[in-house]
Amino acid sequence: MTFLYPIIFAIFIGFVFRVSARVCQKSLIDLIIIAYIVFCGSVILTGFTLSEIHKMNDRRFWAIGVFIPAFIFYIQFTKFFGKDRNENFTVFQMIGSQIQAVWNWFGNLSLFLKCIFAGLFISLGIIEITNFILICYTPPNEWDSMTGHLNRLLYYLQHNTMSHFGGTNWNIDSYPRSACTIQIYTYLMSGKVENWFKAIHHTAYWIIGFGVFGIVRSISKNLTASFFCALVVLLLPDVLKQTITTESDIVLASYLACLVYFLFSFNEKKKRRYLYLAGFSFGIALGHKITFVFSLPPVFLILLYTVFRDDEKSNFLRLTFAHFKHLFVAFILGFVLFALPAGYIENIQEYHHPIGPPTALKHQSVDRAGSKANLIKQGSRNVLRYSIDLINLDGLRNWEAGEKLNKTMKKPIIWFERNVLKTRLEAEKDFTIVPFTYHKRFEFYNMSPYWGIFGFGLILPLILMVLFRIIRAKAVYYYLGMAFTLHFIALCYTAAYDPWKGRYMISSAIFAVPFLALLFTEQYSIEKAKHIFLKTYVGFVVIVGIASALSSTFLNYRCLPFSAYGRKSAFDMTRMEILTEARPDITKAYENFNNIVPQDATVAVATINDDYEYPLWGDKLTRKLIVINPFEQGLRPIPKEADYLFFAKSVIKPKIGDIRLGTDTTMTKNVIVKGEDYYLRKLR
User: Fold this and answer.
1) Which GO terms describe its molecular function (predicted)?
2) pTM here?
3) d(CA 409, CA 430)
4) By Cβ atoms counted within 10 A, which residue in 87, 509, 540, 627 is the most buried?
């Protein structure tokens, strides 16, 4: 019967596209983005329901359950939201016409632009093939997933519910759970293949590209600009890094891209269906991760432009009562359906705060800064720190020669900060998780880069020139520029400096990358033959950007497709070596554990907040784990049903007969956080 579930999954995907086809415009981008929101919304609502009735691990309920909200969406779109649809077409007709349009578009480009786009498309194709193979043949190994994101999925499946149970890592219980429903659904329907945990993240990567394409097409009406912006966002180093991981930021950015796309689509078409789709996207995004609040002020600005603004009268009074009614209902529906059930209410009940326990707040929020005066002072330093982090040859610096060039390029910036500004960015360590340095550890810039040369070479200069009116642009670009600025400021002032923050800039890119459309739609368009210098400069940036994107993929330290840095490729490593790649000092200990403990054993786990637990579940994720040292709750008794006890020496004192598993406590090279000294005790 197992073979039926992938078939049912495929049928569900087809039904989702059927729903989307009944409400979308005659646009392939519209079809795909609406289908994505219908899919995610249906799975999330089903997951919340199954959690309440303790059926999270029952594939029969999943197989049938997801069709119910999807069918409700179908009724809503056909009878209410989409009844003003007046276009008749088939999906196959639309796909055929789109392919022909792209072929004609490319054929009409100048030789210069043909070379630019050929390079972008070919490099994207190479990267996608490589990443797809990596996804299919290597397990996930991202740090937070080993301690929290993936680990909690298996606990939820084991408990048959997503309710609080007391996990070792604080985010197991306190993080919003909507993403968990999608990962659990794809995992179960695939036949329990762990690589499918990454399916939503890789899908989100493409949705970001489609979303940016649709946004730019809406504001510029220029197909060349739309393709260029979409290709660039798909080749940004920070976006590429999360394409093959199970980190959560790329999924959040995809929801944001959908939300902004729907708002611009409403501005263009004035169809109320887009207000409801925007409301659902808002709720799904807020239910995905609390850091979506960084995007609320920028989204409000976009809302002002797309819904409130009257292009003819240049005021904000045009909003009709009907539009306001639908806008209000849409966002309330999105909040109630997708955000409230995601765990915020349970967090308030458990921790008296919607985010989580006080320790987590002090570590990762404004609470770490202390007084408001200190928050303003240190947040202002973070503005400079993150601005400087954006000016790096990310991707290219994965090569030794690239890093040397990068250091040379940054010398004037370092001199200016130290001798003119004197802001003590490196010396001041307050309101930082890891102190700022101009020359970060290799692991930091390799695993969590920013935008690279596309960012500081094209995107940021265009934003600054528009905001300072050096370039005269349409009003929409001023709104987008302010939206990006607000998002960037939120990153700087709402949490301590963190060298891993490049991942948050994926969402910032949704507001920033559309500025590249100015290269094709304004007076300085590179489509004009006379702009020789500008065309040369853009060509140079594109070449370096492509090299950076390829380097980000093929020199990805945590998942190398080929041997590099004196290390084996991911395909030549054992599963345990890949899972513990970021913590090489514990690899031997976990290998010994896996060799000793049967794959179907029940293991009591006494570890600390930052320990890897995901590898303990076994090669096929079949072991049962019982947490006995939950976060800040103290040590619990060893349960009678446990066959083994896995523990850290700092949690339980070893006794005679316990097996020391072999953590290398002397290793310092390539170790960011030292592993605990792990032991194993056979209980029966």
Assistant:
1) glycosyltransferase activity
2) 0.96
3) 28
4) 509
